[in-house]
Amino acid sequence: MSIEVRNLTHIYSQGTVFERIALDNVSFDVGPRDFIGIIGHTGSGKSTLVQHINRLLVPTSGTVIVNHIDINDKKVPMKEIVRRVGIVFQYPESQLFEETVYKDVSFGPKNLGYDDEKTDFLVRQSLEIMGLNFEEIKDKSPFELSGGQKRRVAIAGVIAMKPPIMILDEPTSGLDPVGREEMLNMIRDMNQELGICILLVTHSMDDVAQYADKIMVFSEGKLVKYGPPSEVFADSQFLANIRLDVPQSKSVLERLKEKGFDIDTSSYTTKDAAREILRVFGK
Amino acid sequence: MDNTIIKLENVSFSYESGDNPVKALDDVSISINEGEFVAIVGKNGSGKSTLAKLLNALLLPSEGVVLVDGMDTSDPENTIAIRKACAMVFQNPDNQMVATIVEEDVAFGPENLGLAPHKIRTRVDESLKAVMMYEFKDQKPHQLSGGQKQRITIAGVIAMHPKCIVFDESTAMLDPAGRADTLKIMHKLNDEGVTVIFITHYMEEITDADRIIVMGDGKVVKEGTPKEIFADSEGLKKLRLGVPEVVALGDLLREGGLDIPEGTLSEEELVEAICRLK
Amino acid sequence: MIKDVVIGQYYPTDSVIHKLDPRTKIMATLLYIVFLFLASNIWGYFAAMFFLIVVVIISKIPVGYVLRGIKGVVFIILMTLVFNLLWTPGEALYTIGPVTITREGVSASINMALRLVLLISGTSMMTLTTPTIQLTDGMEALIKKVPFLGKVSHEISMMMSIALRFIPTLTEELDRIMKAQKSRGADFESKNIVKRVKGYVPLLVPLFVSAFQRANDLAMAMEARCYHGGEGRTRLKILRYEKRDRIAYAVVLFAMAGIFATRFITYRLI
What we know:
Strand order of the largest sheet of chain A: 6-7-8-3-9-10
Radius of gyration of chain C: 24 Å
Largest interface: A-B, 35 and 36 residues
Largest sheet of chain C: 2 strands, antiparallel
Oligomer: heterotrimer
Number of strands of chain A: 10
Mean pLDDT of chain A: 92
Distance between the termini of chain A: 44 Å
Low-confidence stretches of chain A: none
Order of helices and strands of chain A: EEEHEEHEHHHHEHEHEEHHHH
Strand order of the largest sheet of chain C: 1-2
Helix content of chain A: 40-55%
Number of strands of chain C: 2
């Protein structure tokens, strides 16, 4: 499954005094099995963008092609789109509504018209992918779970539709540090083991540095940078200009270079940075 | 004179859940001095938020005593005075705003205290200026960003002239810019003498705190300066907590044989430490 | 989208009407409604219309905004027009097949339509010139004077103000939940009524859960800010009648007397 976005523009309240350009002529390709980190300030257009990938928003102009299908073609039913693209909004636990976890997770598969057997399989599988014990949790009310469990059940509800492309908007907000790491690891597993293409929207430079294959940087409605982390982080001055930070480890390397160390500043993960510093010291 | 502002003595708190009571806090004793900046961290469900609500008489202890500015929270006569002395900013700014106009919202606290209108006006104006939101005073809250909204709720609390402010995960729902602004205001208030108690999941935010209290399963597990607390990354990991990235990098370098002092918390310190080894 | 509805939303200008005390405007609107119903012929509506036009001119609000409120009820106005036109018995004017249009019918339908238009544009003048917070304050002050209700005036106005405060928040929330469920294949546009009604469960349950959560949080936040009911509470802004309010009251009473006097005009236009 690939995504091709061409000249995508979205203008809110066009023709009124409230007119605001949220996306300005954005074009990019995403390959199957990619893990993309999408980064930018609040209001930079990243949330508007992801809602175009499954027709929740219709472009003012431009096209979105998902696996060779123009998703804004009126003849394509919404069901065919949600089958391909799953989206997990920020605080997804607020969309839980059923009496039991099982029923809630099966909402998506049922809507796609899957039979009981297939639904059962999908519910079980997706709860397990999210690290939950199927037997233990399936008959519980989603409202009596802890915050972290609710979040996982809600995400399982999207995974259960088996979308080859998944968009996650700030899935770690409000979790404790280990909870954040666990969540990101589960997302990485979905990408590496199940081959799901991931679009992760986040504010955290450190998270995209550690997990994403490629990074999109949005600023004022434009896609200003798109490439592997090493390339995106190479120009820290550019990132600073649009008020984004580079990962701390990278910035330590750059400071050391300024102090006269003969050091390669291209690493951006904690481990690689440590390795590079140790190399300089001959250890 | 004793300058303790908050004192918890052997405090426990249980709430009913189904048939059996759940112990959210278990024999906690804490003492916080006036003017301190204290951070409280712990995994989800470790009792941090319960603790915060006890400091404001929103919850009363099942056992033990909570003293705020010398007043016992379990005496209903003290409730208003306690809430005036020790104010609270919560997580979701949307759920703390009462009025449809910014300045009216800031006025809510002073209005409840029964101050004269001209006094309320002065306090509203000075509080909005303190959080750099004065020019937004006539706007509607729902037109502001998350960070701006949280600054308004902080102004609403400052307007009550509290001695102590509890920030209960007040940065959790904000973007990095909003978080940085909120943190800056917290430190500014602390410099002006307000005691700050800050509950958070973000370890990078508390490297400047005077003291960190680590909670786990309703108990105080550890207490110390940031240097002391972050020296033990392994222990923190066991409590589902982490360390700031700089500390993690320092740890890796130490493991690799470089002599980086424990408790190196900021980029500057780490870079200096490495330069010294050259 | 639901957010974009602007009927009767505050429209700021620097007019003297905007500066009037909200109580003056609420009372004037109430009087206006009462006298609109006391008017018994078209002259009364002309008088009311004259009064309203003068108010609109002074308020400096574009006529389009004032009329926007009528858009929503155009259908009802047309219906009353047609019903009155066709089914009022009386002296026949025209007969087209089985349909007879009477003199009384024409007069009644014109009167009804005028009354509705005047009623709606008149009340929207109040909301267009007064911010909601002032409206609730004004109502609180006025309700205080009403026996029985006086005791709960603070609670009533607090409820109104909180409701107004949370409408945009909950609208956004609903929008978000709707998008989330749509992405899970929920169908809100089904032609089948049963399916459609069932389709709203995944929206309403989360919305109510969230509303209760918010109410809970808000109650706690209010308590933490020393809220303890209306007793001993002061206000940032205190309502005070100015000279312009006394003049406004005099003008309104004079105008209302004028509208009332038209009852005695016997000359019929139709």
